Structure formats: structure tokens, C-alpha cells
């Protein structure tokens, strides 16, 4: 979908990394959190610098976990929490990212260029006694459907249309029984044509979108809303399938 938008905007040399962010991250490559998510997202923002440096100036909402003590305290962060790391040492940030990945954390990103990058960007800084307690709790974001409601629709298809926006190759391995499928990169160009093939579907119907982690599902949800499918929602969860045997985990 993003590639299609880039082509429409006039870019001519556009290529797509089909495996997406999950594969990029799984391979050990770093990802970087956006400014808005750092400031207001439901995440755990970790300051890897010394507590002395953190007390002098730090990003608001950050929790002080100096790198030297990280392995002893990182398990205080819930495994499902999105984690954002920053430091004033790039190599140390990357090493911390590796430690979190090896410990099983799947949603870990960095502040681009760390503390200094944030400061150059003009990001807000605070000072004073550091925070060391993690208080994160899972919150649904606007447009998100709960796993319970999603699974209820799997049991009773009259509750909602389940829409799978993974690639054709992913669906060939397995898919949720009863779900409809259209790859994300075809959704914009074929949306109304595709939904016209579903008997009785109107733009008022409930549509629950999923992919493998939720990232592509959220993008599809935004396009559906923009095109008048006002009761679309997306699943932010890990969905893995082999034939019609699928697991859904938060």
C-alpha cells in the first residue's frame, strides 16, 4: 500500500521489502520509534545512561536503567510492553537492544541517534530525581479490537468479517478458517471491488483486520476508515498459521 502511494506521488524507483518490519527486526536490525510514540505512546522508555546523567537531563516519562545494571533489572518490564531505548553511546544502545531481543522481548526500538539526537531535534527534556519503577499497563489504541471479540467473530461469522491482509505467500502456509483475504498492497486499488464479492456486506458492517503482528492490519484499518468502512477495526496481536491451525497471542 505504501509503495502504491509512493508511485502515485511520482516516485519511479520504488521497491518493497515484502517480509516487512517483523523480519527486519527478527534479523537483529534496529528500528526507530517515531517522535509522537516516544512522547505519548503506551510504552516503556528506558534511559540507559547513568542515573547521574539522567538526573541532569532526560526525556520525559523515561525510566532509569543504567546499562551496567540492565541485565539485573530488565525483567521488571512486562514482556508484552513496547520498549524504547536511548543512550549517549550508540554501540551501547545496540548492545542493549540485543540483550532485550535475546531475553524474548519482541517490541524493542531505539530513539534515533539516542539522547543527542533527541536534543538536536529539539525534544523536551526534564531534570530532577530519576524514575526507576515501571508502571506500564496494556491499553487498547483507537480502532483496536480485543482478542476476545476477534475470537468471538471467528466462532460466529455473523458478528464481523475477518479480513486477512498478509501476503499471498503467507496465506499459502495457512489462514484463519472463514477469513477473507486481500494483500495489503492491493487494498487501495481493489477495495470496493473486493468487498462487493462478499454477500450482503455494506460499509456499516463490522470488519476485523489482522496480519501477523498488527502493523499492517492497522494500516489497512486506516485506509478502510478513510474510504467509508466506518466499523472497521484491527487486531494488534501475533497470528501464526499452519494450514487452518492458527494461534493468536497478545
Structural class: alpha/beta
**Total separate domains:** 2
**Counted beta strands:** 11
CATH 2nd-level architecture of the largest domain: 3-Layer(aba) Sandwich
Q: Catalogue the unreliable spans.
A: none
Question: Strand count, sense and closure of the main sheet?
Answer: 5 strands, parallel
State the end-to-end distance. Answer: 25 Å
State the helix count: 11
> Quaternary state, please?
single chain
- What letter string, H or E per element, gives the SSE order? HHHEHEHEHEHEHEHEHEHEEE
Shape: elongated
Strand content: 15-25%
Provide the spatial order of strands within the biggest beta sheet: 5-9-8-6-7
CATH class of the largest domain: Alpha Beta
Computed CA radius of gyration, to the nearest angstrom: 20 Å
Tell me the name of the CATH homologous superfamily of the largest domain: Rhodanese-like domain
Q: On the 0-100 scale, what is the average pLDDT?
A: 91
* CATH third-level topology of the largest domain: Oxidized Rhodanese, domain 1
> Which bin fits the share of residues in helices?
25-40%
Amino acid at each position: 500500500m505504501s509503495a502504491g502511494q509512493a508511485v502515485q506521488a511520482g516516485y519511479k524507483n520504488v521497491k518493497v521489502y515484502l517480509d516487512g518490519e517483523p523480519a527486519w527486526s527478527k534479523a537483529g536490525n534496529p528500528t526507530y520509534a517515531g517522535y509522537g510514540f516516544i512522547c505519548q505512546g503506551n510504552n516503556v522508555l528506558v534511559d540507559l545512561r547513568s542515573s547521574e546523567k539522567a538526573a541532569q537531563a532526560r526525556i520525559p516519562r523515561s525510566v532509569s536503567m543504567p546499562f551496567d545494571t540492565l541485565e539485573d533489572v530488565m525483567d521488571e518490564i512486562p514482556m508484552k510492553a513496547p520498549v524504547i531505548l536511548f543512550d549517549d553511546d550508540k554501540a551501547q544502545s545496540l548492545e542493549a537492544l540485543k540483550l532485550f531481543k535475546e531475553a524474548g522481548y519482541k517490541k524493542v526500538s531505539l530513539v534515533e541517534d539516542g539522547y543527542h539526537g533527541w536534543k538536536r531535534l529539539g525534544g523536551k527534556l526534564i531534570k530532577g530525581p530519576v524514575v526507576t519503577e515501571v508502571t506500564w499497563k496494556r491499553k487498547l489504541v483507537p480502532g483496536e479490537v480485543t482478542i476476545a471479540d476477534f475470537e468471538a467473530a471467528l466462532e460466529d461469522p455473523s458478528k464481523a468479517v475477518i479480513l486477512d491482509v498478509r501476503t499471498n505467500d503467507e496465506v499459502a502456509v495457512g489462514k484463519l478458517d472463514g477469513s477473507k483475504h486481500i494483500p495489503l498492497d492491493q487494498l487501495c486499488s481493489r477495495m470496493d471491488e473486493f468487498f462487493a464479492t462478499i454477500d450482503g456486506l455494506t460499509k456499516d458492517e463490522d470488519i476485523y483486520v489482522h496480519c501477523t503482528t498488527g502493523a499492517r492490519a492497522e494500516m489497512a484499518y486506516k485506509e478502510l476508515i478513510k474510504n467509508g468502512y466506518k466499523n472497521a477495526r484491527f487486531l494488534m496481536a501475533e497470528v501464526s498459521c499452519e494450514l487452518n491451525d492458527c494461534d493468536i497471542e497478545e
